[in-house]
Structure formats: structure tokens, C-alpha cells
């Protein structure tokens, strides 16, 4: 017995580095004490259960095995006890050969056949950690076997691999020799090829009816043209093809027309949830309700649904005439005019006091001060010191005003294009703007089922109670993006990755800068998700990480998904064209007309004066 005890502790403490051990035994009391003493000196925490007796407490057993908080619990079982077969049955039905338990099963009888008989139909997994030990009666050496099954549910076979031979004395155990290359790598690395297995995959197709033949659907998913239709489905399908090559397996397919009907059940996610599929072709979002059942393996790609529109007011895009008056408010303009008039009057007084030969009129001196304000200089300046001082002050004031004014105008011209004041989804829902949507299931179902008030009122106001016909609300991304460009104020809701492609294609640089964006849902990323209990989780995760590290994934992602729009500020040319300066010319024209009238009146008045003098 002592040899066996030493071996058990050697296997758990040294080979597997586990301190928590459950011993399922049918040993006599005094030898149990002996083992407990040995385990204590080796710092092992042990729990014992006698499986030689008839009345075995199944619930207590399950509680110990399942409800522990350890990363891994070691279990030793002597296969020669009365209830051993029953325990194996329980392990099968309760799926206890998972990665959280390390099984060490010991057979005294050295019967290879028995091991095969016991486990050929057992519910073993790819990530099972089960060591079967036979004791060679010739030299008392222990021979270890590693057992697993790459997928019993899809026709996988039991794999028994011999590992090593261990020689034990009454004091300690030592490795005698390796019997295979199993020791040189991690357990999972030995099992990483799923050759000859066919995993079940569930995929989403929206643009083709589901009764299309499988060949046609597969051909469509593998095609690379027209990246705007079924982008995510095809992008992720092609990424999974590479995963298939890495794993060396084959897939059978289930096709669905949606991700899910209500966050968990139905569609692609429902298939995973019901264990109808091992892996999903398309990634999805890791939400709180899904977190109970799924685990996220790797990040797949970003996911943003946006409402985009151009500024409603900017129908006459470019620069508005009123912006020439914007730099100062009305009071400033009034005071400035007042100052100029006052300066004009003061100048007039100065010229009068200077007793010149030719005295400019009041109007002329006002014209002089206006010329100073427009940085035109003056052709007539006062001679007296006081007058010149006043003139300096006037020039200086207008110099400052003028520079300030031009800087403000220039900075408005070069600055950001004004964005709309509709900044939130609720404002959008309450506005009178026209809305169109991309008919993708993730947008449709999100709008219909979301419990966020803003999204719900958007759905009610713009879709459910809209008077527009169905096909004028649901537009393809290409049509929608074009409409947004054509009609400022038209709102289109779509997934960013697809619409950006068309925006790049059709928009002028300054139109890209003008685009307003409101997020329909929080910006997030999608993940590759599998069920928490999936035996392939670790393997898929490692393979996907490899794809991320080698850049294969990004190569495909860059082909399918656009994440940024470039708004080149330098390209932003503000057109101050004749169209916008029109009022100026009209004003000029009007003033010419007025001048002409005044001229005519002056001529008539002059004639009458002459006539009157002639009559005298
Ligand atoms: C069994 O697994 C080992 C590695 O664990 C592998 O080398 C061997 O090829 C497998 N045998 C079969 C029949 O799959
Ligand atoms: C698929 O179903 C639609 C009706 O749901 C039918 O009109 C169409 O002919 C079917 N296509 C094939 C290939 O069976
Ligand atoms: C994968 O399965 C399909 C159909 O089930 C078969 O046509 C194909 O040849 C298989 N591929 C490989 C590599 O085994």
C-alpha cells in the first residue's frame, strides 16, 4: 500500500501541482490513517469518501466535485471498489470529465481490456484531464495512460495514449522512463488538431432566402465582391475558414436569417445556446444576459450603428452673408458708428478753427473718419497739434477694430463647419427630420426590442407611426448614403462599417466634415463567443489568438470593415462666391441709382436757380 500512497501524492503534488485532493477509496481504517499522515506532511488538503459501502451519498459527492471554487480539484479513485462503476456512471451523466477536475484512476489488476471497456463509451472531452494507472505486477512499477475524446457527440473516438512509467519505493517515487512523447508539450497542444472531425457551425445569411441550396450559400459566403451585402456574415465566415484550416477539421452548416430574436433564443445565438452548434460563424456582442451562458474568447471587430445626416440649415452650404456682421454684436456696431460720426464732427470743427482757405464740409470730414476706419488713410489732415492728436486716436482705434474684425472673419472661414444642434437620439426622435434605415437584422431587432426610452420613441415616431411606405423607410446603405448627401437634414441609420465605404465613394471632402453622427447604440466590439461549457473554447481561443498575432485576421478585417472617415481640414474650402456676395452688389447698384437720382435733382435745381437769375 505504501507504494501506492507515495505514487498518489507524487502524481498530485509533483506531476499535476494540485494540493486539493478528493480520495474515493475502499481502504481499511488504519491504512487510511497512514495515508492521511503522509498527505499532511506533503501539505495536501484531502477529503475522503468511502466508496466500498452501499449507501453512497450522491448529492454530497456532486457538491464536492462541482461546487468548489478551486481552479482544479484532484480526484483519486480506486477502480476496484464496490461503487466505482456507479461513480463512473455519475461522472458520465453529470459531465464531470471537464477541465476543472483532474482524475487519477487506479487499477490494481493490470487489465488494459478493462480500461477500454470502461471508457470506450464514456462522455470524455477534448479538454478532459484523466490519467489511468495500471500497476505492473512484475516490478511494481506504475504505468500511466492519458485518456480523452475529441468529440464524442460528433463521432470522435476514445484516444488512449501511454505516457510514462513511474517506479516507487517506500520512501519516494521516481520517473523510470517516458513511454511516448506526451511529456514534451502541454496536454492541449497534443490534441490541437481536430483531423477527421466535423464541427457543427451556425451561420447567418440575410440577402439570400434560406431555402437556397447549400452549395450556392457557401459560394456566396466565400465570395468577395460587393462588400456591402451581408458584410459581417461573409467577413466572419471567411475568417472561420482559416480557423478550419488551423484546426484541420471540417464543418457542417446550419443557416439562419438572424442573430437572435430576443437576445438569447432563436437564430444563430439560439443554436449555440441549445448546443445545436459548436461554433458560430458570426461574432456577436457580449451582453449581461448572455454573460451567464457564454464566454468571450477573442475580440472580433468593432461594431457601431450610427444615425448620420447633414446640417438641416446648410441648404445654401458655404458662407452666409450675415457672417460678415457676426464678429461684433449690434451694440458694438452702433457705438463704432457713433464714434466715427463724433470724430467726423470734431474734425469738421478743427478744420473750421484752423481758418483754412478751403474748409471741408461736415460730410467730407465724416468721410475722412470713415476712410480712417477702413484703413484708407486721409488725404487731408489737420495742421494743429490738437487736431493731429485726435486724428492719431481715431486711426489707432480703427486699426485695432479692423484687425480684430478680420481675424474673426478669417477664423470663422477656416474653422470647423458648424454641426447641427441635434446631439442625442431623443432630440432626433422629437425632431421633424426624415429617417431612413438599413434593413439589417441587428438594426431592425434592436430598434424593436430595445428598452431604452430614446430608442423606443425613435422607433415609434419614425417607423411605426410613420406615414411613409415601408420601402421608403428601409433603404440599402448605398441609396441611404446618397440621399443623405442630396438632402441635407435627411437622417440615415446604418452600421458604420458599411456606410463609410459609400461615404468615401460618393462624398466630397467638405461634405464628410459636415456629416453629423449620433450613435444608435453604444459603440462596442463583437467577440467570438462559445458556451461556457464548450470543450473547444480553449483550443479555439488559442487558434484565434494566433490569427490575430500573425495579422491574418486584420488583413481580412481591413478588406471588409471601414472604421474611420477622414475629414481633411485643409481640404475644407469655404466658397465665398458671387452667390453670397450678391446682396453687396445689389446694395452698390441701389446706391448708384440713388446717386443718379440725386445728381438729376441737383441738375434740375441748378437749372431752376439759373433760370430764376436770368429772369431777374
Ligand atoms: C491520440 O492522441 C495522441 C496525442 O495525445 C496522438 O499523437 C495520436 O495520434 C492520437 N491517436 C489517434 C488514433 O487519434
Ligand atoms: C424558396 O421559398 C420561396 C417562398 O418562401 C419560393 O418562392 C422560392 O421558389 C423557394 N426557392 C427555392 C429554390 O426553393
Ligand atoms: C467537408 O465536408 C464536406 C461535406 O460534408 C465535403 O464535401 C468535403 O470534402 C469535406 N472536406 C474535407 C477537407 O474533408
TrEMBL record:
GO MF entry, a single one: ligand-gated monoatomic ion channel activity
Main subcellular location: membrane
BP GO annotations: detection of chemical stimulus involved in sensory perception
Assigned keywords, A-Z: Cell membrane, Glycoprotein, Membrane, Receptor, Transmembrane, Transmembrane helix
Domain named Ionotropic glutamate receptor C-terminal: residues: 330-510
Domain of life: Eukaryota
One GO location term (cellular component): plasma membrane
Subcellular location as annotated: Cell membrane
Record-linked SUPFAM superfamilies: Periplasmic binding protein-like II
Bilayer disposition of the protein: Multi-pass membrane protein
Domain Ionotropic receptor 75a N-terminal: 9-162
Transmembrane segments: 330-349, 391-414, 585-605
UniProt similarity note: Belongs to the glutamate-gated ion channel (TC 1.A.10.1) family.
Name of the protein this chain belongs to: Uncharacterized protein
Source species of the chain: Drosophila willistoni
Gene: Dwil\GK10441
